[in-house]
Write a structure and sequence with these properties.
0% strand, 79% helix, mainly alpha, elongated
């Protein structure tokens, strides 16, 4: 492994943490501006950010480390959102337990992972096509 690759690995946790803080704050701000429930919005934004940032920062084996970051993020999301309740603005179900934010977070992370892997495959196919011409 080259030194540049090792430096990327050293920077990855800081990049991921910074991106999570930024995306979470941005999602919470947007959700409050539009008057929608902020928990699923912030969860979806953080899940997508986690996968994309890890995918971009990983110098090698991007799909593997994207999957690992998704799995770790899914576990953290479960720990944080398993006891979520509907907000008081949902009058008929207010304060009742729900897994909606958790499912939205998981689905967002999974769709982001699938998209990243597909885009990497397309980029690799384009590189091969260009190399062959």
């Amino acid at each position: 492994m080259k030194w540049e690759d090792e430096r990327l690995w050293l920077l990855t946790p800081f990049a991921v943490l910074g991106a999570l803080v930024f995306s979470g704050a941005a999602a919470l701000t947007l959700a409050s501006q539009f008057g929608v429930w902020d928990l699923p919005i912030a969860g979806a934004a953080c899940a997508a950010t986690l996968v994309v940032t890890t995918f971009l920062m990983a110098p090698t084996r991007k799909p593997l480390f994207g999957l690992i970051s998704f799995a770790l993020g899914a576990w953290v999301a479960w720990a944080m959102l398993k006891d979520a309740n509907w907000p008081d603005s949902y009058l008929e179900v207010a304060y009742r337990p729900t897994l909606t934010p958790l499912w939205v977070t998981w689905i967002s992370g999974l769709l982001t992972l699938i998209t990243c892997i597909a885009l990497q495959g397309l980029a690799a196919a384009d590189r091969q096509a260009l190399a062959g011409t």
